Amino acid sequence: MRTGTTFRVTALPTALIDTICSSGRDAAGRPVETVVAGGGEPLRCCLRDAEAGEALLLFGYAPPVAAGPYREIGPIFAHVTGCPGPDQAGGYPAAWRDRPQVLRAYDRRGRIHGGRRHDGTDPESVIAELFADPAVRQLHSRNVVYGCFMFAVDRAE
Q: Which of 42, 60, 98, 100 has the smallest CB count inside 10 Å?
């Protein structure tokens, strides 16, 4: 079921990946790893799973929240080069529909302000439900098993 709430999904910016590649360091100052995909690694640059044999970067990333005690660094995968970005600019990633995820809500100070697990069948309703709270500024989709950051969800302007 689709709701009236509008939102924008944000993949990893190309400029960030370029910076990571040129510096060779991640958000924690550790060296970036280049790996060959076994298949199934969630790519934060194009919001789909990797196919076996693709060249990937593995690095620590600090999701976009205000600096403070709730800011964290976690591992993510992205293409080394030539990523065209997500297929559906702004909408919920089609390749990850039906995948259970956790949507973690953050307030303007970057503090966790609730959240909810969903089974992937109707993420738009869960997004609308969380954004119904005016204190919620942004949502982060998280992998259920590993807890890794997948993508950010913002209210559409």
A: 98
For the stretch 93-124, pLDDT in tens is 999 999 999 999 999 999 999 999 999 999 99
152-155 — which CB contacts under 8 Å span 24+ positions? 152/9, 152/10, 152/63, 152/64, 153/7, 153/8, 153/9, 153/10, 153/103, 153/127, 154/7, 154/8, 154/10, 155/5, 155/6, 155/7, 155/8, 155/131
Angle (CA) 76-88-141 rounded to 5° is: 40
User: Using an 8 Å Cβ cutoff, are 134 and 5 in contact?
Assistant: no
Instruction: Tell me the CA distances in angstroms from 146 to 14, 19, 97, 103, 143, one per residue in order.
Output: 24, 26, 18, 14, 6
* CA angle 152–76–17, rounded 5-degree value: 80
User: What pTM value is reported for the model?
Assistant: 0.89
Distance between CA 20 and CA 114 in Å, rounded? Answer: 31
pLDDT digits (tens, 9 = 90+) for 44-74: 999 999 999 999 999 999 998 887 888 899 9
